[in-house]
Design a protein that fits this description.
Length: about 625
């Protein structure tokens, strides 16, 4: 790999929004900040996290926030230059955004009787991602009639990774610059906004148990630097915030799950990227699930994916310490079997050698105590980090991949005979059924996709009855295709019988990219089912509805087209990805579009569709 290619790769992975660094800002950072933010201080967020924040957010942290004391020795001009160096854009550019249209009159009022009709990211706690007919308010035959009703543009954003939540007559959603919005469901005007410390890519989880009381409903979400927040759902007022992992690279990507007065939070990290620096001692992070008290954010229990703490096991050829075991991050939103009181998650790869049996595995955890009941590894000897994408980087583990995470949420289901099973999809392209009555013993396996670093099943399948709908990404990647013996991509949507694993139908993706940059035909984002149809946002920017019986496309919308937003500005979507799936509720369809990271098309809109007005 040539040096220019390495630079392009790293810029994409670190998600810099346009590299406009100044020499002065870089010099000040290296002199005053790098000692802490490049690994020197355990609790300091790594530089790569700072690079994901907008310039005004970084500056605010130094002038009035958590970094005020540490930045007191810098002049106002120095602080501004550091913020602009890290963000890759000026503070003025960050502030020059269209002001959101604030609600007035009845539009700003919340309806406390309109509680959410679904539970979090997975729609139900078993993660079926099936919208019931009474909640959808639409039939499959209505989908071809859908029209765009309004669009909301997220300022200073090139991606939208937060799945919309519809409740209380509002739409709740997070954004790349850390702002969480409560929007009027009918018009898209802003009822309130709250600024978190960093990007919010989880959905907003609404506490609904207060529907029949006078208590204020609560909204929960997490940001990119592993802070979990609770705010009043009707005002945005902060109630508490808790950083759930002190590792400087920790993050929360999977949606927290609220169940029986506990908030269950999966914890992942981006230390996999830090390892691209050959002098970085790799690695010290290990994934976990944390149970919090939703009233105050206090930790109740924590279960790590790897029991033992990493210790030095050797050195690289340039003398950098190698620490292991590490990794096994938890990217996905847990599923819960309420009949047995068990939580299920999948893990990612190890970050360093030697790999152990906790990576690329499925975990069963007791809800009450956090006790690990059992685990099942599906891909052995998978140790990988970003150093493996850079030629001769000594931080690449001996195993060198294949990086076959479980990124999609697990699904708790029952066969037609009533057997409890766990359905899981992997980046390898494999789909599995595990026997929950026998500690996860395998029942069947079906390799549907080619797989790869951005291949296979990414963020979420859906289940209707005994039919499992499986989205396959299989993003084109010359390096991955070479490693996998040039197996053709299987990008598209597939239906599988959960009793046997037998394929019911296959709908390979229609490639409409025609050479467009960063355009891919596959499905990375989570999909969503409703009776008779499946909705899928593709990496080519198309939102498509499929007939669930045949796989035939019955409706599609090109989200990359320019639209006029609720504040009168122009914006457009891009690739669909990052975990957020479409949401159907009360006769409307909500879809967030734009995935300007990891070689996908950028965009920054929430698109809302409905049926034509009756004349």
């Amino acid at each position: 790999m040539t040096r220019p290619m390495i630079v392009i790769l790293l810029l994409s992975i670190l998600t810099l929004p346009g590299w406009a660094a100044t020499t002065a800002g870089e010099e000040i950072f290296q002199r005053a900040c790098a000692g802490c933010h490049e690994g020197g201080v355990k609790k300091a967020p790594h530089k790569m996290f700072l690079q994901m924040m907008p310039a005004d957010g970084i500056l605010n942290s130094m002038e009035r926030g958590i970094m005020q004391m540490q930045s007191s020795g810098l002049s106002a001009a120095d602080r501004r230059m550091v913020a602009e160096y890290l963000a890759g854009h000026t503070v003025d550019e960050a502030l020059k955004r269209a002001q959101p249209q604030l609600c007035s009159g009845p539009a700003k009022e919340f309806d406390l009787d309109k509680v959410t009709k679904k539970v979090g990211w997975g729609v139900n706690r078993e993660n079926h991602r099936l919208i019931p007919a009474d909640a959808a308010g639409l039939q499959a035959s209505d989908l071809p009639k859908l029209q765009l009703k309004w669009a909301f543009a997220f300022p200073n954003a090139q991606r939208v990774r937060s799945q919309p939540t519809v409740a209380l007559g509002a739409v709740f959603i997070g954004s790349q610059n850390g702002t969480v919005y409560a929007l009027d469901k009918k018009t898209g005007c802003v009822r309130w906004s709250f600024r978190a410390s960093a990007e919010v890519r989880t959905p907003v989880i609404i506490e609904t148990s207060h529907a029949s009381s006078k208590a204020t409903p609560i909204a929960y979400f997490a940001d990119l630097i592993a802070r979990v927040y609770a705010v009043e759902a009707t005002t945005g007022k902060l109630l508490w915030v808790n950083k759930v992992d002190e590792h400087p690279n920790a993050t929360v990507t999977g949606a927290p799950v609220l169940y029986q007065s506990r908030l269950y939070v999966p914890v992942s990290s981006l230390e996999v990227t830090s390892a691209a620096d050959p002098t970085y001692p790799c690695c010290t992070f290990r994934g976990s699930v944390v149970a919090l008290n939703p009233k105050n954010g206090a930790e109740i229990w924590r279960t790590h994916s790897i029991d033992e703490k990493p210790t030095e096991v050797g050195k690289t050829k340039i003398g950098t310490p190698v620490l292991a075991p590490s990794g096994a991050p938890i990217w996905n939103s847990p599923s819960i079997d309420t009949t047995t009181g068990t939580l299920y998650v999948g893990t990612g790869e190890n970050y360093s050698s030697p790999a152990n049996d906790r990576s690329d595995a499925l975990f069963a955890i007791e809800l009450e105590t956090g006790k690990l009941l059992w685990h099942r590894q599906k891909t052995a000897n998978d140790a990988w980090n970003v150093a493996c994408m850079i030629q001769d980087n000594p931080n690449c583990p001996e195993e060198n991949g294949p990086d076959f995470d479980f990124g999609a949420g697990t699904i708790v289901a029952r066969t037609s005979a009533g057997k409890p099973i766990l359905l899981v999809g992997q980046k390898s392209g494999d789909v599995y059924a595990l026997d929950l009555a026998d500690q996860g013993q395998p029942i069947w396996r079906n390799k549907i996709g080619r797989g790869g670093i951005q291949g296979g099943v990414h963020f979420g399948m859906a289940l209707e009855g005994r039919t499992l709908f499986v989205p396959i990404s299989d993003m084109s990647n010359p390096e991955a295709e070479t490693n996998l013996h040039a197996v053709p991509s299987k990008a598209g949507l597939y239906a599988v019988n959960i009793d046997t694993g037998r394929m019911l139908w296959a709908q390979p993706a229609n490639n409409v990219c025609n050479g467009r940059q960063y355009c891919e035909p596959g499905i990375s984002a989570a999909i969503t089912a409703m009776p008779g149809a499946v909705l899928a946002g593709h990496m080519d920017g198309r939102l498509r509805a499929y007939d669930s019986a045949s796989g035939r496309v019955i409706w599609e919308y090109d989200a990359t087209r320019e639209v006029t937003t609720v504040d009168g500005s122009k914006a457009s979507g891009g690739s669909f990805g990052g975990g957020a799936g479409p949401v159907i509720q009360d006769g409307m369809l909500f879809a967030a579009s734009g995935y300007g990271v990891y070689f996908h098309m950028p965009g920054n809109v929430l698109l809302v569709f409905g049926l034509p007005e009756e004349k």
